[in-house]
Design a protein that fits this description.
With 326 residues, the protein is mainly alpha-helical. It has a two-stranded antiparallel ribbon with strand order 1-2. The protein has one domain: Farnesyl Diphosphate Synthase. It is 75% helix and 1% strand. The protein is built from 16 helices and 2 strands. Helix 3 packs antiparallel against helix 16, helix 7 runs antiparallel to helix 8 and helix 12 crosses helix 15. The longest helix has 28 residues.
């Protein structure tokens, strides 16, 4: 059985929970919009990570299902709002929420998913102290995601961005939700605060690799693999790590041309030219190397746990996160 099939099996109870929570109510347009992206598919990486972590520390993952569904609701809330902010028309290979239901309803749909997440967490059959801890932690995480999104928006006005600042931005915007998954799964599984925080750090670090690889794929993968048009980061002039590395490494002429492409309404040919510059100066190779580097620490952490089906699946999942589409 390949990883995709294993993940699909793990995701089944999460999908069922999401279908139950996201039933269409009145006003119908709002609830249809809320369910549009979450029920369109997706890999369910974050909720599956929570389930696997719970099992790996010796817990019953059934108890983690509402929490896992909550993470997917949070993730999709950010996607719906991201698509509005980035003016992206596709998500997971389907029309973005705002293109069907309009901007105002899409914003409300995101808000609805955000609210649903906390309802879901309170449905976990766990100790009230653990439940309160998870509610507080997820609320904190969502606030940090907003900080990361604002940093990302601010970077669009900068010609160059420091690599450390960029890594902090993606840690906040993307990585810490993976950390929240591992932390919550571990706490529901009954492990100590110290062990849960260690697993949280491991998952957060791999989340950095995941986002760096996502940036890499955005420039190099086909629309079929991405589920959205390739090169969207370049079209929006985003200073991803790929762009930062290219600006630091390229010769003067290539650097000037890359900035010109990033700061203009570019054509498909110009996007392809930008990718060529990134390749020529070694930026693509560097980002590939950095993304894979985050796997080593994760493997070391996982080696502390006894061999089990959950640990093996966790290892496969982490590897997939920084090698998918390659």
């Amino acid at each position: 059985m390949n990883l995709k099939e294993k993940l699909a099996i793990k995701a089944k109870p999460i999908n069922k929970a999401l279908e139950e929570y996201l039933k269409v109510r009145e006003p119908e347009k709002l609830y249809k919009a809320s369910a549009h992206i979450p029920l369109a598919g997706g890999k369910r990486l974050r909720p599956v990570m929570a389930m696997i972590t719970c099992e790996m520390v010796g817990g019953d993952s059934v108890k983690a299902i509402p929490f896992a569904a909550a993470l997917e609701a949070i993730h999709n809330f950010t996607l719906v709002h991201d698509d509005v902010m980035d003016d992206d028309d596709l998500r997971h290979g389907v029309d973005a929420c705002h293109t069907i239901y309009g901007l105002s309803t899409a914003i409300l749909a995101g808000d609805t998913l955000f609210a649903y997440a906390f309802e879901m967490i309170t449905d976990c059959d766990i100790d009230d102290r653990v439940k309160a801890d998870l509610v507080k932690n997820v609320a904190y995480i969502v606030r940090k995601i907003a900080e990361g999104q604002q940093m990302d928006i601010n970077f669009e006005d900068e010609e160059t961005v420091d690599a450390k600042e960029y890594l902090e931005m993606i840690r906040l915007k993307t990585s810490i939700l993976f950390g929240a998954a591992a932390y919550g799964g571990a706490k529901i599984g009954g492990t100590s605060e110290e062990e849960a925080r260690e697993l949280e750090m491991m998952a957060t670090n791999v989340g950095l690799g995941f986002q760096i690889w996502d940036d890499y794929l955005d420039a190099t993968a086909t629309e079929e693999i991405l589920g959205k048009p390739s090169g969207s980061d370049i079209r929006q002039g985003k200073r991803t790590l790929l762009v930062i590395e290219a600006l630091n490494r390229a010769n003067a002429n290539d650097r000037e041309r890359l900035i010109e492409i990033l700061d203009s309404k570019n054509t498909d040919e110009e996007v392809a030219e930008a990718v060529e510059i990134m390749d020529r100066c070694g930026a693509l190779e560097e980002c590939h190397k950095q993304a894979n580097g985050y796997l080593e620490g994760a493997r070391n952490t996982l080696s502390n746990y006894p061999e089990s089906e959950a640990r093996q699946l966790f290892e496969e999942l982490l590897e997939y996160m920084v090698t998918r589409g390659h």
